[in-house]
Amino acid sequence: MAAKAPAPGKANKEGFELFLERVKQGKDAMWNKEELLTAMHWQKQVTALIIGIVCGVLPLTGLNGFLTFAIAQGLCTVIFYRGVLRIDEEQHGGVAEVLVEGFPTFSAVFVLVWVLAYNVAHVPLSATIV
């Protein structure tokens, strides 16, 4: 069965473009499950990037950095899901599924940015040259 073509003047939006459009629509946005997971994916990527920079600059290391990330990411996801998008939890299965969706991807972004930010902010250039 062929996919339904979008209405004239409306293109299918994907990825970050879909995320931005839905955030602008706020509580009036109509979501299907795939669109919701895409929007939450991009929210988590951006949040992981910001938390990674903050943890690297502060300088948090070890378990303190990971705990800060887990708590901040969880809070940001719940706030975004309930406050910004105003999702009907009964229709979409609640926030629990959204919290764990894409964990390896956004965790990798956090660790990469955390290490880079920490090294840029706290490791002297002379220490890296042997």
TrEMBL record:
<keyword id="KW-0812">Transmembrane</keyword>
<dbReference type="GO" id="GO:0097250">
    <property type="term" value="P:mitochondrial respirasome assembly"/>
</dbReference>
<comment type="similarity">
    <text>Belongs to the EMC6 family.</text>
</comment>
<dbReference type="GO" id="GO:0005739">
    <property type="term" value="C:mitochondrion"/>
</dbReference>
<keyword id="KW-1133">Transmembrane helix</keyword>
<dbReference type="InterPro" id="IPR010742">
    <property type="entry name" value="RCAF1"/>
</dbReference>
<dbReference type="InterPro" id="IPR029008">
    <property type="entry name" value="EMC6-like"/>
</dbReference>
<protein>
    <submittedName>
        <fullName>Uncharacterized protein</fullName>
    </submittedName>
</protein>
<keyword id="KW-0472">Membrane</keyword>
<dbReference type="Pfam" id="PF07019">
    <property type="entry name" value="EMC6"/>
</dbReference>
<dbReference type="GO" id="GO:0005789">
    <property type="term" value="C:endoplasmic reticulum membrane"/>
</dbReference>
<keyword id="KW-0256">Endoplasmic reticulum</keyword>
